[in-house]
Amino acid sequence: MQVKHLLLIAILALTAACSSNETVDENLGEVELYQQAQADLDSKAYTSAISKLKALESRYPFGRFAEQAQLELIYAYYRNMEPEAARSSAERFIRLHPQHPNVDYAYYLKGLASFDQDRGLLARFLPLDMTKRDPGAARDSFNEFAQLTSRYPNSRYAPDAKARMIYLRNLLAANEIHVAHYYLKRQAYVAAANRGRYVVENFQGTPSVADGLAVMTEAYQRLGLDELAASSLETLRLNYPEHASLEDGEFTPRETEEDSRSWLSRATLGLIEGDVPPPDTSRANRDVIRQYEAAERDLPEELIPVLDEAREAEAPKRSWWSRLTFGLFD
Question: Are 110 and 87 spatial neighbours (Cβ–Cβ below 8 Å)?
């Protein structure tokens, strides 16, 4: 990123911080406050508009512009790149005015705020791969758009919300595949297989289904579960014959079985990784991981010895020299 972009970001941040403390004239009446707020919105002076809309609501809570000010405050926060404030204001409006004729707009803005939460100012200048980011905001946005389309199917905002839901669903599926490949690389094959299966079962119609089948095939092969691997591979061949993992119909694993960590990772005992760790910090992802762990516990008894043998066979045989040097000279 160029230095001028960094300077621009710093200037904008300082400007926003300084202008957020604007004092609104106490002598302004209700109509004047509302008109000035509208003028600020029209000129894209969102920080100033926020100050006036908040003053309007606090000074005239039962005035004729109070509800409209609450609604437009959501929009001002959203355009001012304050997603948390926008979502909080939207939730408040929905709670206070559930029967308002424009409450669907509050649902829509709430979904937009979550949708753009990971696409702030930095995202305009950095080549970010959204499939590798924490999917918490994407899940929230999908659920909020789903509320809008289910409660107000005829809303003018429903078509755009549905289009964004398709994109978000594809994004969430791709994120699961990214985490599955991380587990494959770390030889956590049960977790990888469960991630792939989760995509196949819950994200039908997305481009990531083929990747999910490929992950399942590779993980089951590593675990020695030949029947499951063959079934996944046959499904992949029949439905996605052009997938990158297939060469003339033969499956090519993506990850090798040896330790694929970088020398830096080995030297620092894994404290510094070359790869981005899986984004499992969100509550939604932790719930999914718990589901996978439960699925592993529920494996049929006849498969447990096979799984144990596979894990034992894959355990690295380390010499005393390897242990003494922490694996630096394996």
Answer: yes
Whole-number Cα distances in Å, 181 to 156, 243, 286: 40, 16, 18
Q: Is residue 328 a contact partner of residue 222, using CB atoms and an 8 Å limit?
A: no
Task: Find tokens 């718990």 and name the residue.
Answer: 290
CB atoms within 10 A of CB 77: 24
Q: What is the mean pLDDT of residues 68-97?
A: 93
pLDDT band at 31 (very low <50, low <70, confident <90, very high): confident
Question: Which region, left, alpha or beta, applies to residue 74 given φ > 0 means left and ψ of -120 to 50 means alpha?
Answer: alpha
Burial class (CB in 10 A: 0-12, 13-18, 19+), 110: buried
Does residue 122 contact residue 269 with C-beta atoms inside 8 Å?
A: no
For 307, the token pair is 């799984």
Nearest CA to 275 out of 288, 264, 289 is that of: 264
pLDDT of residue 142: 92
Are 177 and 198 within 8 A, CB to CB?
Answer: no
Q: Rounded to an integer, what distance in angstroms lies between the CA atom of residue 192 and that of residue 189? A: 5
Residue 291, phi then psi, degrees to nearest 5 = -65, -40
Q: What is the mean pLDDT of the chain?
A: 77
HSE-CB at 149 with a 13 A cutoff on CA atoms is 16
- Whether residue 161 contacts residue 265, with contact meaning beta carbons closer than 8 Å, is answered with no
The type of residue at 236 is: L
- For the chain, give the percent of residues with pLDDT over 90: 42
pTM of the shown model = 0.66
